[in-house]
Amino acid sequence: MSTDLREELDALARTQTFSPDPSLWDRGRRARRRGQVLAVAAVLAILASVGGAAALVSTDRELRTASGEEVAGGAIPSRIQDPGELGLEPDLAVGPASVAFFSSVAQPVVIGATDGRYHALDLPDLSADRGPLALSPDGLHLAWRNRGGIHVLDLEDGTSSYYPGDDEHADVTTLEWVPGSRRLLWTGEDRRGASSGGVLPVAGQGGRPLPTSALRGIPSPTGELVAVASPRTDEDAATFVDPGGRTIGRVLPADLYPEGASVTPLGWATDHLVVAQAYGPPGSYVEGQHLVLFTSPERPRSEWTYRIVARDIPQNAVPLSIAVDLIPDLDGTSSQALTHDFGDVLAPDQRDISWIIGLGVAAAIAVLLGLRWLWRRFLPRV
Amino acid sequence: MTDRSGFDEFVHARGPALARTAYLLTGDHHLAEDLVQSALVQAAKHWERIHTSPEAYVRRAMYHQNISWWRRRKLAETPLESYDAPVAAADPTLRLSLEQALRRLTARQRTVLVLRYFEDLTEVQTATVLGISSGAVKSMSRQALQRLRVLAPELADLVGADA
Question: With contacts defined as CB-CB under 8 Å, which chain A residues touch B26?
Answer without folding.
Answer: none
